[in-house]
Design a protein that fits this description.
This protein is about 45% helix and about 15% strand. The chain has about 375 residues and is an alpha+beta fold. The strands form two sheets. It has a five-stranded mixed β-sheet. A four-stranded antiparallel β-sheet has the order 6-7-9-8, covered by helices on one side. A hairpin with a 2-residue loop joins β1 and β2. α1 runs antiparallel to α2, α1 runs antiparallel to α7 and α2 packs parallel to α4. The chain is elongated and about 75 Å long.
Length: about 375
């Protein structure tokens, strides 16, 4: 057995570790799809992902963010500034008038953190602009509202930037997004930058929001990817990406939650602390012998409110994060995972012990 670990769980660190891991998983999956499936596929995927996010979050967040009584162009620009800031993404706001308001995303870009930006085709940007920004007017019932993009990331200009504009006429579908490369944003005034209300968005809530922000992109990303390339291919690509990210980020996340290298008991403690960073409930139990451990995992935020038709796919991909993390331990404990679908949300049992880790998938091309 490995030496006992302290019982104290640092919840803020565990929440941060989950935000970091899910963010990395999203980036890794984007690179996997871009390199294995090509620009058109990832562009279609990004369109579907951002349209799904839009339909799930856009109007429902207006009241929370205090935007319901504002002119639509102003409200949309403020929405993207505030929602991204809550998720940990820096966006500047420049309001020209009631009918024209700008947004400019600052670097480093959250969606393409680090060198990831070099692996993304321009179809990614076009996909999310069409999926979300060009659809704001439709959702608000304002046929005159569109988005004008003046700069993108992948084209080497100055980052994603543009403005919401309420035109003098109703827009045809193809007019809701247009490009104007010869325009530049007005100067940014920090005094006019919208901020989330401090009373509602304290540091703890912001930290959880950053975690949920990344997690929702993963959840919706896997579901919408299956719409594009099918469930079997999604399971293969998203499962492999998850396992690689779990291995790659085990050391960083283990340091955040305070667990070292070790055998089954240490691996179980790592999983428990990480899952508690999701708000899940975990209980570690003795295994069949001194080299084994069991973890009862209840709550499963990752599966909450998920369509039952998508549950098995999401679970099949997501568990590979943790299979990968276990694989990175020394001496590489094995794991058998079972999901009990009866609860709401379901519960899982992790049986960790010596022996080979769950067999890796066949080589994916």
């Amino acid at each position: 057995m490995s030496p006992p670990l302290p019982d104290t769980v640092s919840n803020p660190n565990a929440i941060q570790a989950q935000a970091r891991l899910h963010h990395a998983y999203l980036l890794g999956l984007q690179l996997m799809v871009a390199s294995r499936e090509g620009p058109q596929v990832i562009g279609d995927w990004m369109f579907r992902l951002f349209r799904r996010q839009h339909e799930s979050k856009f109007l429902s967040s207006f009241t929370k963010l205090g935007l319901t009584d504002l002119p639509h162009a102003v409200a949309c620009a403020r929405y993207h500034v505030l929602s991204n800031e809550i998720g940990g993404v820096a966006v500047q706001y420049m309001e020209e008038n009631d009918r024209k308001a700008w947004v400019r995303f600052r670097y480093p870009r959250w969606m393409y953190d680090g060198p990831t930006i070099c692996g993304m085709p321009v179809e990614v940007s076009r996909g999310f602009l069409r999926g979300w920004y060009a659809h704001n007017g439709v959702s608000l019932g304002n046929p005159r509202l569109g988005f004008v993009c003046v700069s993108e990331d992948m084209t080497g200009e100055f980052g994603l930037c543009g403005y919401f504009l309420e035109h003098d006429h109703d827009l045809a579908p193809e007019e809701r997004l247009r490009f104007a490369r010869d325009e530049a944003p007005p100067p940014w005034d920090p005094a006019r930058q919208p901020r989330p209300p401090d009373a509602q968005w304290n540091s703890e809530r912001l930290q959880k929001a950053a975690r949920n922000y990344a997690m929702e992109y993963v959840r919706n990303g896997i579901v919408t990817l299956a719409e594009v390339i099918g469930e079997a291919r999604t399971l293969a690509l998203a499962g492999l990406a998850a396992r690689l990210i779990g291995m790659q980020y085990w050391r960083e996340t283990a340091a955040l939650v305070g667990t070292p290298d070790g055998g089954a008991d240490v691996a179980a403690r790592y999983l428990a602390r990480m899952f508690e960073g999701m708000g899940d409930v975990c209980e570690i139990r003795p295994g069949a012998d001194s080299r084994s451990a069991m973890l009862e995992h209840r709550g499963l935020r990752i599966l909450r409110d998920i369509d039952p038709a998508s549950r098995d796919l999401l679970w099949g991909c997501w568990q590979e994060l943790w299979i990968g993390a276990l694989r990175a331990h020394e001496p590489m404990p094995g794991a058998v995972v079972s999901l009990d679908p009866a609860g709401a949300p379901p519960a899982a049992l992790w049986q960790i012990g010596p022996g080979p880790i769950k067999a890796p998938q066949a080589q994916i091309r």
